Amino acid sequence: RATVDAMAVARGARAVMATARARSGTRRGGRARTTRAGGVGTTREVSARRRAREGGISRAIQADHGVRAESGDSNDDARSAASVRRALERVREVRDGLLEIAGEGASSETETYEKRVALMDELEIVRAWVERGGAVVAMSETMSPRERYLVRACVACGQAHLFDFQDDDDAGEDALEGRIARLVAVLGKVETFYDMLGGVVGYQCTALELCLEYATGEPAMLHSGADCYGVDCYGVPGDVDFHVPPGVDLRASDGAFAATAARWGLEELPNMAEIYPLGGAGDRLGLVDAETGESLPAALLPYNGRPLIEGLVRDLTAREWLYYKLTGEHHKTPVAVMTSAAKGNHRRITALLKENNWFGRGEENYRLFEQPLVPVISMDGGRWVREGFSQMALKPGGHGAIWKLMHDDGVFDWLESRDRTGGIVRQITNPMAGTDTTLLSLSGVGIKGDKALGFASCERHVGASEGVNVLIEKKNALTDEFVYGVSNIEYTDLDRLGVSDKANGDGGTESAYPANTNVLYVGLKHIRDALVGSSRAAFPGMLINLTKPVLANGTKGGRLECSMQNIADALMRRSSHRLGPEDFDNLPTFVLYTLRRRITSSAKKKRAPESMNLAQTPDGSFLDLLRNASDLLKRCNVAHPPPDDQPLEEYLSDGPEFIYSALPSIGPLWDVVEQKIQGGEIKKGSEVRLEIAEIEWRDVSVQGSLFVESSSPFGTTSAESVCFDESACGRCRLNNVAVSNAGIDWSEASNVYWSNFITRRERCSIVVEGNGEFDAKDVALEGDVRYVVPTGKRLMLRPDGAGGVQETWSDISMPSWRWKYTFGDDDRVNVVMEELS
Fold this sequence. Notes:
Layout: H1 6-23, E1 33-35, E2 44-46, H2 48-51, H3 56-65, H4 75-104, H5 109-121, H6 124-132, H7 135-140, H8 145-156, H9 173-193, H10 199-216, E3 238-243, H11 256-267, E4 272-277, E5 302-303, E6 306-307, H12 308-327, E7 335-340, H13 345-355, E8 366-371, E9 373-375, E10 377-378, E11 394-396, H14 402-408, H15 411-417, E12 422-425, H16 438-448, E13 453-458, E14 468-476, E15 481-489, E16 515-523, H17 524-533, H18 535-538, E17 543-544, E18 548-549, E19 556-558, E20 560-561, E21 573-575, E22 589-593, H19 596-599, H20 618-635, H21 648-654, E23 658-662, H22 670-676, E24 677-682, E25 686-691, E26 694-703, E27 705-710, E28 715-718, E29 721-724, E30 731-735, E31 738-740, E32 764-768, E33 773-777, E34 780-782, E35 785-789, E36 793-799, E37 805-811, E38 817-823, E39 829-835
Parallel strand pairs: 4-7, 4-12, 7-8, 13-22, 23-25, 24-26, 25-27, 26-30, 26-31, 27-32, 30-33, 31-34, 32-35, 33-36
Antiparallel strand pairs: 1-2, 3-14, 5-6, 9-11, 10-19, 12-16, 13-16, 14-15, 15-21, 17-20, 18-19, 28-29, 36-37, 38-39
Helix pairs in contact: 1-4, 3-10, 4-5, 4-10, 5-8, 8-9, 9-10, 11-16
């Protein structure tokens, strides 16, 4: 596969080497301040980590992690740190030699790896391993230069124990060859992905540096370079201020700016892409394969009747349908999907997409790329966790891998060939981000302003387990430059960076800093240029979490991880002088605000049976979905039980008091929905599900369950790909209609409302096939009734004069009505009913 080009690798090598050479002369210390709740020049707090000089940094980091330095009181911690230091000194020398080879260049990959093998063979640890001989040594001699190098690099990193046979190992020749081949394949992926750091050896060296930083407080090399501008640049002297990021609230002035920004987003839709990191497993959701017991990807969680990934695609299709209705043009947005090799994630995601015919978008509009798995290392001298002969514990390297993988796997090239300049990034466990104007406004501001990165943010509760968005103002004492940009601080890092997680001063529980939701706009060229030019950008927010034991004896460990949102730290604006608040709107990064439940309400973990804590659970996310539905229905003048009036205990035990769920393409803008749906009531204990785009609802009353479904909500399907054609889609008109039936069986204990696993006694079901039309006016639809309208037919329901309903069928070749969309002077979308026949 394509990788970051040789010149980029060489630049990364030179940068790492320059940092290494300058390391001994780098002064530690400097101050860090935060500015919060009130803008520039208000409350300043001194960071415990940065306020100390020299050895004070070490003590601050140690205090943050609850560990001791080598001179401290814990013998175990001291021994662990000492073993890591010895391993680091050995591996760092090897890494530096490899980076020098990369910097020199070579005529071919074969020549490069021959040089690397020669370097390996000069190492005492490798020579000793070769001299001992054995099957693996003999096998390595017949390998290609690259494969031979990878095996020797593994030994040079101190991992020869992977090749030692133990009593429970299968010593058969076939098993040996197969396992070595699999090991080399894994190492090859690590070598490619971390090429800018020195490949496999660079991975180990960086991990050891971070382990030592964790244990002793000594800043790692990647946190000490002059080009390090992030909040984790502990070894770079200088002052740091954290400000509340300035940004427009999409709710302001009755959404006036939101409407304008959403129009920008619609106009730029042909230039946009979607990017989905789907590597997460559903462990915390209790999502497992019933036959194998294997954890399933979170993308497969059945949320409100469909897999989470389908919800994201529905939101995207809704924006494309809105564009089509305004312009007559159907643009299919390319979707880049990062999967993972962990627990069959890539295989299952691919199978899900194929089984659902790529959700009508065509396989050619998707690009799947697989996140590599990386070794888990322990604090026992950096040894990789062994799981059998030539096998080791492997974990995904965090969603921050997405940017470099997009480069290495040609995804940026693919998007460029599709003339895409911007992208929206969404995480699979957050089904709420597509609400109303949020994503269109985010993309509109980003692409119109040629921004590099944008955050959709919202209020955050004090103490919440989520990161915050901040505006960083930093003076780098090594370069005498000021740098500015909006970035993310993880909640676990707030204390040690001197950022107080306390209320914003109004006496409430809202944090001074807004939440990072990981709903992002990315300027594709900006991101690409940054990651090619800097290893910091290629591996943003790199860290190693050493809080959990990885060995049977309790020794802790972890793996290198990156955070996708911290690409912001490589996108800062540099200035020779201090900037003022008036300049903050002109940064490469930006933030937009909206109500929390309009942008995020994740379904990440299963709620404990007796727990009242709904945070990050499907139960809580579905409640927020209903709260959003309530806000929309108020605008539509549809009466319904207010969700917040229902006690939480009752919601969890008995279910919600109403359910409203609709195809996003009815809007997705609420300005559009409220013109299509007006008046009526959804009574307590009732549900309405509208799976149709072209609908007129006027004064409809529902007691029980109402389902309206179109088999062709957007038109025709060609070669399993949907082609927008408003003359060929299904239609439904409901005017002054009363629906009455027994509806949901609320007494059924097995009901799971958030997944739409519900038992119903009765319902009114309206199914419109093809270009069929259903038209009901001034009638009551009572009991368990089902109307199916075939394509090419119109069914009209009218009073029969005797208290019943008269059905009138007719043939149609063209629609009898349509919604006509136009932009108004205020940039809002106006919808007008046009009678065609």
